[in-house]
């Protein structure tokens, strides 16, 4: 096909000749029954019912798995896996998700529960992973056959907190920060400006400590030392009491207080480039949506200059707060 001669051209000619005489979407030939090895037996209906009862005590016979993975979405340091039921007659009680590196021979459980979506964390960038899911029928103990494995990977750089900052202890992958007992205060920033407009930045509060109105979780245009909170200029954040701050000013709208298990998300999009026509001092406008506990606030954030990427950060005045970022 690339212009070869001789034998390669003969193969191509043979293929095109065959295609013009055979319907490529036709079914394969069905062999004669005498050519197929088989074992047949004549059973009474009563025996057939006994056999059926024994089979259904141990499992079921299905033409395909009742659930399949429908979508893989890359995240910084993770992959969101979504699956759906493809058998309308199957009532699922629980789902079981497994994954492995494509170079590994062993699948491991990563989720068991009733949800049809889960984010798999601790994903190395630019590495292929396989995912599969099965289900357990309502009132049954055994699991269904596995879905067809799907391959996914993330090209996004994982979000990491800055290591070595007194006052916070980090996990081995530096995506979880724990406020320790140190009396040192200040803002713990990301290692690099890894958040880009158009993405969703997610903070999940694993454990909580004593709240303080000066606490903050948010994003900023640049790191600024000497501040105890992100409640300052060139930053947007939410306090643990639910108050929202834009460039150091508290908004009228407020979100629910942050509790253990709360998820706070930031979605930011560029609105305008160039000089704005107002007198608020900003020259670059971003549209920010902060969501928490099924509530959200939307506002415009004015910056002095264009930012291709942003830092994220957090600050807590009392120990016990643990935050995962992805």
UniProtKB/TrEMBL annotation:
Sequence ranges assigned to domain Fibronectin type-III in this UniProt record: 65-158
Protein name per its UniProtKB record: Cytokine receptor-like factor 3
Biological role stated in the UniProt entry: May play a role in the negative regulation of cell cycle progression.
Chief localization: cytoplasm
UniProt keyword terms in alphabetical order: Coiled coil, Cytoplasm, Receptor
GO cellular component, one term: cytoplasm
Signal peptide (from-to): none
Protein location: Cytoplasm
Family: Belongs to the cytokine receptor-like factor 3 family.
């Amino acid at each position: 096909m690339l212009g070869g001669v001789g034998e390669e051209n003969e193969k191509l000619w043979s293929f095109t000749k065959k295609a013009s005489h055979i319907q490529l979407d036709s079914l394969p030939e069905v062999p004669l029954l005498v050519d197929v090895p088989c074992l047949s037996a004549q059973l009474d209906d009563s025996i057939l019912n006994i056999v059926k009862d024994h089979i259904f005590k141990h499992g079921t016979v299905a033409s395909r798995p009742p659930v399949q993975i429908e979508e893989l979405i890359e995240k910084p340091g993770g992959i969101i896996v979504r699956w759906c039921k493809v058998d309308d007659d199957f009532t699922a009680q629980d789902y079981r998700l497994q994954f492995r590196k494509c170079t590994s021979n062993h699948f491991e459980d990563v989720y068991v529960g009733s949800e049809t979506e889960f984010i798999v964390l601790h994903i190395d960038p630019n590495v292929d992973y396989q995912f599969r899911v099965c289900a357990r029928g309502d009132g049954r103990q055994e699991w269904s056959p596995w879905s067809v494995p799907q391959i996914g990977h993330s090209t996004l750089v994982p979000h990491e907190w800055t290591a070595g900052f007194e006052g916070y202890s980090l996990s081995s992958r530096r995506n979880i920060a724990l406020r320790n007992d140190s009396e040192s205060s200040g803002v713990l920033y990301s290692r690099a400006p890894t958040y880009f407009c158009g993405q969703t930045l997610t903070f999940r509060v694993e454990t909580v400590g004593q709240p303080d109105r000066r606490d903050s979780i948010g994003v900023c245009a640049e790191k600024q030392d000497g501040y105890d909170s992100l409640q300052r200029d060139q930053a947007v954040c939410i306090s643990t009491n639910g108050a929202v701050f834009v460039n150091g000013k508290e908004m009228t709208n407020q979100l629910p207080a942050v509790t253990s298990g709360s998820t706070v998300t930031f979605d930011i999009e560029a609105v305008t480039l160039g000089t704005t026509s107002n007198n608020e001092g900003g020259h670059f406008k971003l549209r920010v949506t902060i969501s928490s506990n099924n509530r959200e606030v939307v506002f415009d954030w004015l910056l002095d200059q264009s930012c291709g990427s942003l830092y994220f950060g957090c600050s807590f005045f009392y120990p016990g707060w643990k935050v995962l970022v992805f």
